[in-house]
Amino acid sequence: MRKFPIAAFGTLALALSACSSEEAGNAKDADSLLTDDWNVVQDAAKGQEVNMYMWGGSDNINDYLDEWVAPRMKEEYGIELKRVPMNDAQDIINQLLDEKVAGKTDGSMDIVWINGENFKAAKENGLLWGDFTGQLPNFNDYVDAEAPEVSEDFGEPVEGLEAPWGKAQFVLVHDENEFGNPPRSMSELAEWVKQNPGQFTYPAPPDFTGSAFVRQVLYETTGGHEQYRQPAADIEDLEERLEPMWQYLNSIEPYLWREGATYPESLAKQDQLFASGEIGMTMSYDPALAASEVLKGRFPQSTRTYLLDGGTLSNTHFLSIPFNASDKAGALIAINELMSPAAQTAKLSPENWGDLTALDLEKLSPEQQQAMNEVDLGEATLSIEELEQNRLPELSSDYIDIIEEGWTEHVAKD
Amino acid sequence: MKKHPRLLSLFLFLGLFIFVIVPFIPLILSSLSFGWRWPDVFPQAWSLRAWEYVVNDGRTWQAVGISLWIALVVTSVNILLAVPAANALVRYRVRGRWLFEAIIFAPIIIPPFISVMGIHLSFLRFGLTETVLGVVLAHIAPTLPYLFRAVMISYQTLSVDWEDQARMLGAGAVPRFFHVVLPHLLPGILAGASLSVLISLSQYLITFIIGAGQVVTLPILLFPFISGGDPSVASAYSLLYAAIAIAALAGMDAALKRYYQTNRASQQEKGENA
User: Fold this and answer.
1) Which residues in chain A have Cβ-Cβ distances shorter than 8 Å to B236?
2) Each residue's pLDDT tens digit, A323-342
3) Could B213 and A272 be called an inter-chain contact, meaning their C-beta atoms sit closer than 8 Å?
4) B127 to A17: CB separation less than 8 angstroms, yes or no
């Protein structure tokens, strides 16, 4: 009688493990999709259900995928595109890491939306499928594969493991009616905060946008971005070089929101402060976010975005296929479709999303270019041209870690 | 009893109003607002955008169904586990009883994140991730302690004499349980089950990690909006969530009342027959 529970657990465990080993075979022949003819891929994709794991906190972006992309995928390719909402791309990586350790081969993530640190972690741990971008017709036709913002992701070589989906650029946001002449450089900003105490702040790093603002300060106060093109470990006097940045941030601190005693913990909180009129400026790594907030009524009609005179940081976000995706053919077709000029043009419109295109405008046909130029970006958004002419490259993630830790040490604690 | 009924009920009503009703007011306003800027006390413009998104999104209703189904199954399993466990631990001299109790209550003290990481790896090997069954099993750990505690206390106030009496009158083990023990335990079970349902409904992390995006409950849809900063949609989801939780509790309460009524009716019938 006493041995009964153990026996029961043993049988249960056996029964359960038997279920899991069945479907191991499917991944083996998927790798041929990387070299197969595109027609073969299309045939293989028919009827597949493609799960796209992505951040799910914007009704615009969610609707763009559910209502614009998914019906077209179904109609044209017979693919069921299913969006899976995530709270943070970091969770995707953690999940895949566990699946790798457990040896799960029939993963349910077919497409993941990542960039930067998450891409680096995924690449280093072998969580991505392979060099697939060369297979995609739309990548070959419309993307400038040599451009640094496509071949590198926060300094990490992409090597075909992920396909560019869109671009983002750092902009500052202000209300034209409240503050007509906003500061366009860090020295002007230092003056501005003295004249308008309590009206400026930035989200505390490691918030993504707050951290980008600090990098923006780094570029301007320490003499440009070129010096940081090498690995951080190779710069011996890095600490001294970063010193002017900490000095600058500490010098403006007394004039910030709540005298700099505290910083908003996230951009969402900071945007809330701006939306409710408590602060006069906010910032965004998405140049069209302000326009879509105006459409939603959260930001006032007179909201405008602008760039710093020295240019602003820009990055690219990517779509990738995990090593254990079950429907790789469908994933290839879907990513290719998401990069089509039509899908990219729809994505550009602030009503759908307002995300900058990953395509090279010069490679588009005149009609396609026109369609893209005709998209009304909203009064709050700058023109694509103006944004493109003022782009600065991102730092690699080893610097970002140093800066985020340094900020806590030098700015938050003082 | 009847000394200050007015004052007391006024007091209770005020407390209820301040702590239960008032927090809902900004949620309702925010879910319907089109821009809500300081220093306006009320939004200046209104919009149904958030509600349209929440109500029209097919996954919302799917998520409601799955959330309730999981909560129901979890709670049923919990009752089946908690009643015998409480029976054994309260009535028999079990060696190392503190250890068993510690194991059952541990999930209240240990953060779920720690255990769920380990559970995730095992469930991956068993093929239980991304399944409702896996999520149900994972929800049992944080919900069982509450049900167990409620049932244990009910058992402590139930003397064995009642059952002995029934036994002397010739009742077997099964009738003894259903006619003597269960009616006494029922209020405790219901109190514990309510907590179990509420806690299961509110799980985000465990559902997220074990369900891996394939088991979409209401919190899975709600969380990205809270952290992503769309207060309107987040408020609309929160209100929907509260409505579902209240409806679930009201439903359980109604079921209990019905049970007592039919039970009494059938006992009366038996009395008449005899």
Assistant:
1) none
2) 999 999 999 999 999 999 99
3) no
4) yes
